[in-house]
Amino acid sequence: MFENKVIYQIYPKSFNDTTGNGYGDINGIIEKLDYIQDLGVDYIWLSPCCMSPQKDNGYDISDYVTIDPLFGTNEDYQRLITQAKARGMKIMMDLVLNHTSSEHEWFKKALQKDPKYYDYYIWQDAPNAIESFFGGSAWTYSKEVGKYYLHLFDSSQPDLNWANPAVRKDIYDMINYWIDKGVEGFRLDVIYLIGKEPDKLITGHGPKFIEYLKELNENTFQDKLLTVGECWGTSLEEQYKMCHDKGLSEAFHFNHFLLNTVDGKDKWHTKELDLKELCDCFDTWQNEYTGVEALVTGSHDAPRMISRWLNDTQYRMQSSKLLITLFGLMAGDLYIYQGEEIGMTNAHWHDINKYNDVETLNAYELLKEQGFDEKTIMEKIAFTSRDNARVPMQWNDTSNAGFTTGNPWLDVVDNYTHVNALRDLTNELGVYKYYQKVIKFRKEHYDWIKQKAKFSEDNGVLKMEKPKFTLVANFTDQKQAHDLGSTGDVLFNNYSKVEKQLMPYQVVVVCNK
Ligand code: TEU
Prior knowledge:
binds 1-O-alpha-D-glucopyranosyl-D-fructose, eight-stranded parallel beta sheet
């Protein structure tokens, strides 16, 4: 039911500022709806815009049913829903259900040991070994309560106690409020953590997780809306359980994102992408997984893929086109993160003062404690920080890339003078137009795309063979051999010709004879 959809992710804070306060806003999104629609988008996923002290850019919610004035009003949000709908697009809301902000009324009351709300959070007399994803212990002592509360993320993001039925009921009511307003899809932030059993050191995919998911579905979406769970490093079995039989429609597994890390977990210790490992990952998820895959090349939580896997300078446009050809011709639902469609790159900042992200700032301190020198730390951060993708959208070559007339909350990347939407759109061979072409093809030929594929690697060239077509993609900056021979019609090519050898970062797709 929800297959072959294209979802465009917006990070509202960085998309388009219409008030000049330096933050993107909902009216700014409305202003760009034609731009999004023209790409061929079905759903627009907005990272959280509800009330929040913004310690984690809105993933710390203090009121689930009020739009933060930073972004506009509930009426603006309603207008966005209506105007998107008029263009055939649906709004997907980001639901942060694992934790609230410490500024949420519930937590404030819990701190006062209110008999109802105390039990909305998770308390222990002493911390145990669970660590926060943002570094350090996941337990913080509350003087008011005289106990430690759990926060799997920042200490300003206390974890909700899903074992308490009253918490679950309040959450269902909140989701139904937004469904009534016309929201037609949901992205569920770190949903795999809600079934945690902290006293047993269980965080992800806990014993009651699937039961909670089913109850959530039954009381809210009822399988009628597109739902995508956010998970990291999921196994096939875990994914199947979540996205099967009245759970979620699909989930991000992000296994390919983790291939750059030395141990498959710690993002600050990276290694080069091994193409063979990437092929194995694609093979598993495209051929063995029986549900719908959420295909994703980027998000607000990861550096730009062209900057870490390919080349974001000399071969920037070729690299962007290579990525969308590869991911766009795989089976599932396709997620595009703002800016990918014009080939935006990492910020590559080597000065810690430029960064805003709480995870990055925590990591900076932790890496220092671990004995790394400043230069090494900044190299790691420039490659991996989430701020690389959170920078303002580059609309044109005027000051601040046309994002704001004020001071942007996060600096604009210097390359906006030549990497920007206006310039890209006026180029017949631009990235945006290429994206359009891939998306159109995908919609028209999904029966070809849905077929199983064989993935292989040879000398830095990835090959994806499907019954109807073959793709070869050169992941290196050298010319490489290919074995396409004098095959059929060329469906896609990010260079003007197909020569005997593939050019650096060239991708070619041909129809099989
Ligand atoms: O992300 C969850 C998450 O696991 C990431 O923060 C991840 O740990 C990190 O980027 C990789 O090390 C979600 C949101 O997408 C993220 O923006 C939030 O910060 C986080 O949850 C807390 O809500």
